[in-house]
Amino acid sequence: MSVPAFLLLSAVVLVGSLLQVSIGFGLGMLAAPVIALLDPTLVPVVLLLLATGVTTVTVLAEREHLDLRGTGWALGGRVPGTIAGAALVAFLPAKALALSVAAVVLLGVVVSLRGFRPHPTPRAVVLAGAASGLMGTATSIGGPPMAMVWQRYAGPKMRGTMSAFFLVGSLLSLGALALAGVVHLETLRYSALLAPAAAAGVLLARPLSRRLDADRTRGVAMVLAVAGAVTLTVQQFL
Fold first, then answer.
1. Quick check: 51 and 166 in contact, CB under 8 A?
2. Which of 54, 180, 181, 202 is the most exposed place for a label (fewest CB within 10 A)?
3. What is the dihedral of CA 97, 102, 104, 107, to 10 degrees?
4. Sequence-distant (≥ 6) Cβ neighbours of residue 39 within 8 angstroms
């Protein structure tokens, strides 16, 4: 990867980490298309490793607002979804995986814009957890299903609950991917190199989150995610 490409990726990871801490998701949706565009072999492991660190910080900060019962239901669905997602990563070629990333991003944006607001019943949360496990393990973008089912929560509760779910879910996904043989030295190296950018996003999120309009921030994140997904799709077909 060239130096300009790495600097671009670092900037995207920084902004994605800031969004992850501020609104509960965003790192995967924003950064996954860019990583897949630059080097598809780094998806999804690098982002899952970075997300583990980012969500750990958020869980500690919002620990008083966690919905542990809801997180438990969601993780019950995450396990089978994780197994299915690891199988996809092990058998899908790089081009198909890159297109899957783009499709998941666009699907997540469409669902969000449609304004579907399901009640967070145990059944709905389990189904969302399964979808998030499949999408998150295969593409590192597991946020949309959980954001949809938990969107009625207030800011701190949503951020804390989603972060707790993603922390455990990311560890489950990484374990499944390691068993599938797709965690290798190069992904670990890039994760370490991008860790400072993720840390900078976390540090900036706290002072900035008080000034950010959540709806406007979410809208900007979706526009950037769509741009990345469209660019990735065009690059694959060209």
1. yes
2. 181
3. -150
4. 1, 190
Classify 142 as helix, strand or coil. Answer: coil
Domain ranges of the chain: 3-237
Residues 120-163 have pLDDT tens digits of: 899 999 998 998 898 889 888 888 788 878 877 877 888 889 99
φ/ψ of 24, rounded to 5, equals 100, -15
Q: What share of the chain is helix, strand, coil (3-state, %, to 5)?
A: 85, 0, 15
The DSSP call for residue 153 is S
Query: Backbone phi, then psi, for 25, in 5-degree steps?
Result: -160, 170
Tokens of 214: 């959540």
Direct distance between the N- and C-terminal alpha carbons of the chain, in angstroms, rounded to an integer:
20
Query: In angstroms, rounded to a whole number, what is the distance separating the alpha carbons of residues 23 and 207?
Result: 14
| Beta-sheet strands, E only, within 152-237 | none
Q: What is the pLDDT of residues 67-97, one digit of tens each?
A: 999 999 999 999 999 999 999 888 888 788 7
Reduced to 3 states (helix: H, G, I; strand: E, B; else coil), residue 226 is helix
> Which residue has 């800031």 as its token pair?
18
Report the predicted TM-score, pTM, of the whole model to 2 decimal places. Answer: 0.85
- Residue corresponding to tokens 């993720």: 198
Q: Percentage of residues in the chain with pLDDT exceeding 70?
A: 91
| SS3 per-residue string spanning 50-108 | HHHHHHHHHHHHCHHHCCHHHHHHHHHHHHHHHHHHHHHHHHCCHHHHHHHHHHHHHHH
The answer to whether 80 touches 227, Cβ cutoff 8 Å, is no
